[in-house]
Design brief:
This protein is of the alpha+beta class. Helices cover about 20% and strands about 40% of the residues.
Amino acid sequence: MQAQRLRLLIVLLAGCCFAGSAFGQLAELGLNPLRLEIGARPLGFGGAFTGLADDVNTALYNPGGLAWAKGISLTLKGFEDIVALQAYPTGFGSSLGLAVINQRLTDIPDPLGGVANSNSNIVLLAYGSKLNFIPALYNRDEAFQRMGVGFSLKGLLGETLRRTTQRDRSASGWDMDLGWLWKYKDWWSVGATAQNILPAKMLGGGEIRWDVGGVEGIPSTLKFGTAARVIGDLGAPLVLEGRELTLGGELDLVNGSGALLRLGGEWGVNKTYYFRTGIMGQSKPGGSAYNLNFGCGYRTEAWGIDLVAAHEPLRDEGIFYFSALYFPKDWIVLKQLDLDRPGLLLEEAFEKFSLADNIVTYEDKIEIFGQVKPGVEVYINGLRAATAADNTFRVMVPLKLEKNLIIVEARYEGDKKTWTYKVLRQAKVNLAGEKELKQQLDRAKSEAEKEALKKKQQEMAQKKKKVEELVTLGVIEVTAEAEFRLDASITRGELATWLAKSTGLPLPKVDRDLFSDVKRDDPRAPYIKLVLDWDLLRGFPDGTFRPNAPVSKEEGDKLFRVLKVQK
């Protein structure tokens, strides 16, 4: 009897030890296979992607951004680390996300001695929509069209764990994420994500179940992030044509690991070349690690590639990710069937449109007209254009004497598509001798004389174009009625003014007389002081500047030599 009790006690103790060894296997190593921080572009931001969430990777980081995402991506860390990710727009202001993930991590230091290897197979299904999918909010404030909510279901189909000191084991489980994104402005957004939030055993999820018995909890994470395109050519605070600077930051609250801070930025050139860097905080056994990531990318209208050099905290070594992306232009799963308001792709919202990019005009306003498909609303520079019964519209837009950005929006059932057009209003200049040359050409009889005059006319046209560019930039001031003489002498005061304006530098404050002939209240004084500070022009030994004196040939030659060296 006592022997039977002893054998029973041994079996129970062995069972307890066996179950205890299965519990917390991944936590001991610092692994969480359902924390999906993958993708070369998000990692290039240092993982600070929750508040940005503007591409197909949002399915992994913040499903609340799926409403604005579409495309396919394939991310590789090696031949056995592959992530295939897709986002399908549904036509209702929402998108479906699907990902198949295979992650492999080898030579992880094991606190019990030796090393561990992990291989995870995961399937993710996500859905995101704008908040105005709720009927009561459909026609309400535009803010509801700028908010996105979403969720993702993550299934761990197979987790294989090999540890030097223990037998091989496998596990499975599933969990859920919730996400929210608010595009408060076209250039600024905020977001939040709650990852792995399912309570244990709810619907069979919220935990990892081992094949040898025992379960393991899945650490949850709360993320709060924001992102801003501070430099750009579309409504950004600082407008810089062909350049973009996007900054992102987020705070991660990881269950059992404390808080992590992540910061990142992306510099774009001509919406083609991108350079990224970020500081990424990551959890590891016994604390956290902060490392600097570097990435780059290349984009066309239909496809792109991204590279990133990141850090693996568990093995304390560098890793590289490569992502290839495809952006289908006309890709939608289904369209809304409504005879009065048929579903459509906003890329095809315009039947006719008069405006083109990079238009050059002398006029102080431009007429924009066209025709849209039924139900489409047109906004030009933030103002709605009235449409007639036949869906045509016609508006006049004033132009400034410089480059003008005209922002055109097509809105339909809560969706919005934006186009940006550049229009240069150029100053018109009348050159002295231009009319006389044209009259000479009209009176010319011989072919030789006509050819000579045409050549002279072409040379004058090229010079006129350069003068008009300078007048447009505000370097030279010429009234519309006056004739500009190319052979006229330039005064020292005029040259100082033109040079100062061409630099684009802020004018200095003048609080005293500069010269006996340039008083502090002289309109030319700030310009003259600027060229003096930069040593482009100098005064005379007698204490004068002589602003009304013509520029001598010697001064001009010297100035051009200085400018050539500085250039």
